[in-house]
C-alpha cells in the first residue's frame, strides 16, 4: 500500500472521528449544559497534556477528587460514548482497507505449493471450523445501542460519498442524541436470557448470511482451483456456550438449556420462513415456459395450494407447501398446539433439504441453473449449515460437580457409600461396569428416590434431561459436546458419560478440558489410558475415532504466567498429536481463547499458523468472547473478513508446512528454558505475601462481582485464591487497571537471563522470531497487549491498597519487568515501538490513548469512594460505565 494511500486513510478516519466527536460535544452541551461540556473539554485537554508528558495523572485526578459524582458520571459517559463512536469510524476503515486474509490467496498458496486435489478434499470433506460464542460481562449491550450504531455507521458511509450535508449532520445529531439518552448498560445484573438474546443478535447482524455464503465460497474456490467438486457439506458450523455453560454459574439449569436451544432454533426456522417467502415471490415460472419435473409437480400438488392464480406456477405452489411445513415446525418449537394442522412439521432438516433438492433438480433440468444458484442455493446452504438448531450448544461443567452427583446417586442406589473416596482404578472399574449395563441408574422424577436427591444434583440431572429433549426436537447437532472442566483423570471423563447414557445421549462427544499447567502436561497420558478402557474405545469407534480436546488458556496463565502458559499449551499439543498417531485417533482441538492476550487472544489466522504440525488437521473450534465479538461479527463485512481468515488459517495449517525451522529440537529446548525462567519470575510476583491484597485492592476485582456486571459470579466458589477466580475477572481486572499483567509478565526476565550479554544468543532469538510462527506470534501478541498498557496509571490504583509498603514494592516489580520486557522485545524485533508490526493499531492507540485517561482516573476515584462506604447508585453506576468504556476502547480487554 502506498504512503499516499495510507495518509488518505488516516486523514479519513481522523476526519470521521472529529465529526462524530464534535457532534457528541454539541449534544452534551445542549442536553447537560455548557458547564458540563466545558468540564469534559477540560478533562480532554488535560489528558492530551498528560499524553504529551507535560502533566502527570495527578492533574486529572485533581479535577475529579472533590467533584460531585453526578457531574463525574456525565464525564465518564462522554468518554465512553466517544470510544464507541471512534470504534465505528475505525471499523469502517478496517472493512475497506484492512489487511485481511482471503480464500483467493489461500487457494493460490495451496496450488503453488503442490497440494493435490485429493489432499485438499480429504481435509475439507471432514473439516469443522467452529466459532463458539460465549457470554461476556462488558459485552451485554442493549438492542437500542446496536441499532444506533448501525444508523450512525450508515450515515458516516454517506458522508464519505456525499460529504457532510445539512441533512446528514441533522441525522447524525438525532442518532447521537438518542444514543446519549439511552442507557449504555443495564443497571441490573443481566440475566442469562439477556445474554442468550445478545448472542443470537449477531446471527441477525451477520452470521445467518455470512456463514452459509462462506461455505459456498469454499466449494467454489475448490472447484475453480482443482476443477472438481469437493465432498463437503458445511465447513463452518457455529457453536455457543451461552445457556449451556454451568461451570460455576448457578443460574444455568434445565429451563435455561431449553430456552437457549429453543430460541436458537426459532432464529434458524424464522430465517428459513422469510427466505422461502421471498423465494416463493421470485419463482414465478409458469409451466407453459419452463417444464417442471414430475417430482416437482408432485410436490406442488401436495402443497394444498388451490389458488386458481397459481395453477400454472408449480414452483410457487411447491414452495408454498414447504413454507407451510416450516411454519408448522416453528409452531411446534414455540410449543403451539393447533387443533387443525394445515401442514405437517418437518422432523429433520434432511426432510427440508430433500424438498429443496426437488426444486433444484427441476430448475437445472429446465436449464435454469442461474435461478437455482441464486436464493435457492443460499437457502440450501443455510439449512446444511444451521439445520433446525442454528448452533451447537455445549454443556460444560467442572469435573468435581460430576463426581459429586455420582457420589450421591451411587450411595442412594447402594453401589458404594463413598464413591468420591475410591481410588482411581476402583472408580474406573465401577464406571465401566455402569456403562456396560442396560439397567437404568436413575429413577423417574416424582419417585421417593428422586426426592432424596440434593437440589444441586437434581439441577444437574435437569440439565441433561433438557439437553436430551433438545436433541430429540432439533437434532443431534443441537447439543453435541459435553466439556469437562479441570479434567485430571480418566474417571473425570467417564463420569459424565454415565449420566449422558441415562438420557440416551450416548453419541455426545466427551471433551476433556486441560487447563492448569499440571493438567496440560498430563493430558496425553490421561488420553492414552482412557483409550485403553474398552467401553470408551467403543464409544470413540462409534464417533469415527475422533477425539476433541479443549485447551484452556486462562488457568494455565494464572498458574505460570504468559510465556510458560503458551509453551505448556504448545508442548501439550505436541504430546497430544503423538498419542493420537499412536492410537489411530483423529484429534480436534478446541481452543478456549478469550479476547485478551492473557487468555489466548490475538489474530485467529496467526494463531492457527502458529500451531504445531498435526494439531489442526482440518478441524478446530475456538471460543469467541469479549469485545472482539462485536468487532468481528457486528457487521456483515467484518464477519466475512474474520471468518475467511479463520477458514484460511485452518486450510493452510492443515495442508502446508507452517513450521519451516531446520532444528525444531533446538527451538523446543530454548523454549523450555525460557518458559522455566519466565515462570520463576512470575512466581516472584504471585508468591509475594502481599500479592493477593495488592491484586484485590488495586484492581476492580471485587466490584466486578458486586456490581452486577455479568450473570456469572466472579469466582467458582467464595475464596481469595487466584486459582478459583474465573478467567474473565482475572484478566479484566488487570486490563482495567491498565497493566495487563497476564499478557506479558516474566517474558523480559526470561529473555534477558537466557541471552545475557551473549550477542549470539540474541541472534538465535532473532532467528526464532523470523522463522518460527509460534515464537513470532507469542511475542507479537505480547507486544499488542503491552502497547495498550499504561504503567504510570497503575500508581493511582496502587494508592487504593491499604498497605502502601506492599503497594510500592509490587508496583515497582511490575514497572521494572514491563520496561525489561519492552527492551527485550525491541532488541529482538528491531522495531522502534511496541506496535511496530501493526501500524494500523499504532495509529488507533495514538488517537484514543488520551481519551482513555479520564476513564481510568474517574474509575480510580470512584473505587476509592465506593470502598470508603459511598455505595450510592450513581457511584456504582459510574464504575460500571468506566469499566464498559475502557473495555470498549481497548477492544479485547477480557
TrEMBL record:
Keywords assigned by UniProt, alphabetized: Carbon dioxide fixation, Lyase, Magnesium, Pyruvate
Gene Ontology MF terms in the entry: magnesium ion binding; phosphoenolpyruvate carboxylase activity
Cofactor(s) named in the record: Mg(2+)
Gene Ontology cellular component list: cytosol
Catalytic site: 136, 558
Enzyme class: lyase
GO BP term (any one): oxaloacetate metabolic process
Keyword Transport (UniProt): no
InterPro entries: PEP_COase, PEP_COase_bac/pln-type, PEP_COase_Lys_AS, PEPCASE_His_AS, Pyrv/PenolPyrv_kinase-like_dom
Coiled-coil region: none
Ranges that cross the membrane: none
EC number: 4.1.1.31
Record field: catalytic activity: oxaloacetate + phosphate = phosphoenolpyruvate + hydrogencarbonate
Family, as annotated: Belongs to the PEPCase type 1 family.
Subunit structure: Homotetramer.
Biological role stated in the UniProt entry: Forms oxaloacetate, a four-carbon dicarboxylic acid source for the tricarboxylic acid cycle.
Cross-referenced HAMAP family: PEPcase_type1
Record protein name field: Phosphoenolpyruvate carboxylase
Source species of the chain: Corynebacterium phocae
Native organism taxonomy: Bacteria, Bacillati, Actinomycetota, Actinomycetes, Mycobacteriales
Name of the gene this protein is made from: ppc
